[in-house]
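Hi, here's the filled form for the chain we discussed.

Project: internal
Contact: R.S.
Residues: 351
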Amino acid sequence: MAKINFGGTWEQVVTREEYPLTEAQAQLKNKTIAVLGYGVQGPGQALNLRDNGLNVIVGQRADSSSWDKAVADGWQPGVNLFDVATAAKKADVVMNLLSDAGQIAAWPQIKVGLNAGDTLYFSHGFGITFHDQTDIIPPENVDVVLVAPKGSGTSLRRLFLDKKGLNSSYAVFQDFTGEAQQTAVALGMAIGSGYLFETDFEKEVYSDLTGERGILMGALAGLFEAQYEVLRHHGHSPSEAFNETVEELTQSLMPLVAEKGMDWMYANTSATAQRGALDWRHKFREANVPLFESLYQSVASGQEAERVIAANQHDDYRLQLNEELQTLRESELWQTGLQVRKLRPEQGSEA
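And the returned structure, exactly as it came back:
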């Protein structure tokens, strides 16, 4: 492992230089790896593993659009595409990438397919951490590991095809064979991680649920809506309000932050923007720390898990979800965004 100083704190990470793909392939060469679920994370991880020369099969419910997607991606029914229970039984490494609700429903048939010495793999700590609500309790004679890419399965696949990588966390919950950590690291590199940093199942799910509800999705969408609403209230046009709220952030500023950091982005904006941003940053932090603390406690107490599980148990959950997303999509803010995106010059064309 490499020892890296992250802002004054030293952490152990695994890089591609010290753990090349050839080592991962050697660690996994005699394993049959089953990717259960072909929805969000499944396609990216399964395709990357397959392209890296490993023996991969997919487990997915047959009467589903995800089964059809798997077939379209070249997985062959009865050869390397099976129902969930069959795939779990055939595998030495069972990668449980079903949705959290899907994991709860499928756990009884997955559990019976596990043999002594198998590896049970997750990309989210939800099922294990909240086992009192999910009833996902692994048998004692298997390894239980986690590799959680810090992004979508789509991003994982795109970066892999671009010869890049998406950073991932990894954890060992149960080490029956004595090789759980080696297996986790090998799988992390084989799915296309840029580097791996260590965590545990509880920390992974706490940070993940906080991030999703916070800055990554919930807070971001809420701040977009708040600023857009204020600008529109004061007479700004939809186009102006959207460009100042979303377009400039996503198309100009965030790429600079990703490339060089927030301080560099500040240094390369106007003096007026710098002064205002530096001053108001403190106000936003002070206003939002209590909200984020409340969010974290809701996650850590299990309340968020309880809410998610309860919602997914309603027969009309998907219908309600689609209605919520339709409302979001049809709002003035995001209908304006639709038109703005159409006006962007095509990549490679002259401005």
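Let me know if anything looks off before we file it.
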